[in-house]
Amino acid sequence: MSYSVQNIRNVCLLGHSGSGKTALAESLLFMTGAIKRMGNSADGNTVCDYDPEETRRQISISTAVAPLEYKGCKINILDTPGAFDFTGEVMEALRAADAAIIVCSAKDGISVGFEKVWKYCQERDMPRFIYISKTDEENSDYNATFNALREKYGNKIAPLVVPMWDEDKNTTGLIDVLNKRAYELQDFKRVEVDIPADKVDVVSEFNEALKESVAETSEEMMDKYFGGEAFTYAEMIQGLRQGVRELSMFPVLFGSAINCMGSLMLLDYIVDLLPNPMEGNYHKATMASGETEEFVVSPGGVPTAYVFKTISDQYGKYSLIKVLSGEITSDLALVNARTGDTEKLGRLYKMCGKKAEEVKELTCGDIGAIGKMDKVKTGDTLCDSRKVVALKGIPFPEPCYSKAIAPKTRGQDDKVAAGLARMNEEDPSFTVVNNSETRQVVLSGAGDMQLDVLVSRLKSRFGVEAELSPARVPYRETIKKKVEAHGRHKKQTGGSGQFGDVWIRFEPQYESEDMVFAEEVFGGSVPKNFFPAVEKGLREAAQKGVLAGYPLVNMKATLYDGSYHPVDSNEMAFKTAAQLAYKEGIANANPVILEPIGALEVTIPDSYLGDVMGDLNKRRGRVMGMNPTEDGNQILEAEVPMAEMTSYAIDLRSLTQSRGTFSFHFVRYEEAPPAAQQKAIEDAKAIQEEN
């Protein structure tokens, strides 16, 4: 069955890891008959956590889509991971959703994960509900959590559904504040009961606050409110809906996913108050002309769809799309705005976790998948040739944690590379770089858990075992002193021999990192036709410094004298002579190790400033400045040696309880202190011995 855009809701579930998002999705699917029995994460049988890695770790790793039908509406639930290593998945879900439900556990209150997703929603002006979960578990405190929300976000926090308790503080039911009705759950069905006497005043107070919020939505409503007239139910819903859309109000609901308390009430309010795709976040689109304008979601427009996620496993590839305009049918030919190529669409599917059900069409505002679109990537816009628009890409966080990856069995490098390339289609938030200088393949992601999952998937999906090791630092070597050196190569065996003889001056230069070669030969002591051989010999030698075998940079080599033999001299002999001069000269030219220095920007709340600065001092960092941000954080700018940053992503998390973020970019090379030089030399020796 296809739904009109007014009857579709695209909602993402956000929150800290372990707050109960997947359990809530399971509960909503069960209460609407989309599934026959509820699974749970511990048993590994939920709809949204179907990947073997998710089952094994009992956490969500990727965003899953779970559609359900309720009161004539289709609700596409996007269940996102809460672990910070998988923020890329949250970014994908935010692009497809029109509203969010932030799940907040009554046991933990406002967690770091809650603060982060709240910020993401604010950046996108995204309407949102807050759902307080686990209210029936031990050590849960609904009141403390609600009061903390009110204190942090003010009176925009509006309770729509509040719990009822017995004497032992067990949650027995819920009160619908808007309609002033109380319900208990019996055999997964709502049964109306009387509001407890001690709750009547509180409910009236909250109900009055809702009326005030509605009054503020228009002059007409304000006059009615102050005139003492009662609002009709339709006016209340209309006013609340407007408040949610304009972000002047964030409704709070509660429940327990395990026994499905509060789930139907949540569904009621998703249908009544959350925006449909036409009212949701309009996408800024870059037109073919290069101009940027608002993209209006329109059912009557030409077909346009945005690819917000790719699922690529051993069974095939699905491109998950949100239809933004018109309707899409299989075999339709659409232009990929990124490549300019026309793509004929494959079969269309409705996804529910890992289950793909084929459909004939996808209507405006709906979420579905296209099968086997090999050239289509996450972030692509598929559109009609009459109106080619490119919507902006998904802002994945920059990878900040790197490790070298190599197969456990020699000769399987191609298998590892092919597996990572396939997984990169599915998860563009990590990068793979083949570093020719350190001769390592470097895998970079958000943290250790993301990289660990990638290694596990290489084994389970592609049958290749790989291991991670520290990524080597690409040091350099240079010289600090001017020296002159002699290189002589003489070899006499039967027949013609080999003879080359050169005098070369080596000195530091700062015009170019590459070696500068010059010649000042007088009187033909070295014939011109051997100059290129001398230069080639030196360039080859400079690939390896004399201290630790790192490339030698910022050097000038001047050939100023030598001698030759009319019969035995040849290019090979002069090349070898130049390399002998290099070995002798560089060793005496005060060689030093240079280390890469990067510019670090750390964004942290004020309270962690002292700890972070102390930690940077231990890393030989130089603080360059500080800038306060609008939201009360500090941006700390520093320069830090790359060698000290290998574990920074993990260390900063533990220093700031995951509240800190950073970016780090290479700036330049500078001379390393003696202790760091010694360590670099020892490390290089160990690598040489290993090889």
Describe what this molecule looks like in 3D:
The protein has 691 residues and is of the alpha+beta class. Helices cover 28% and strands 33% of the residues. The chain has 16 helices and 37 strands. The strands form eight sheets. The chain has an eight-stranded antiparallel sheet. The chain has a seven-stranded mixed sheet with strand order 2-3-1-4-5-11-6, with helices on both faces. β12 and β13 form a beta hairpin. α6 crosses α7, α6 packs across α8 and α10 crosses α11. The chain is elongated. The model has no long low-confidence stretch (mean pLDDT 92).
Quick tags:
691 residues; 16 helices; 37 strands
Low-confidence stretches: none
The overall pLDDT, averaged over residues, is: 92
**β-sheet strand percentage:** 25-35%
Q: Tell me the span between the first and last alpha carbons.
A: 63 Å
Tell me roughly what share of residues is in helical segments.
25-40%
What does the oligomeric state look like here?
single chain
Tally of DSSP helical segments: 16
Give the strand tally: 37
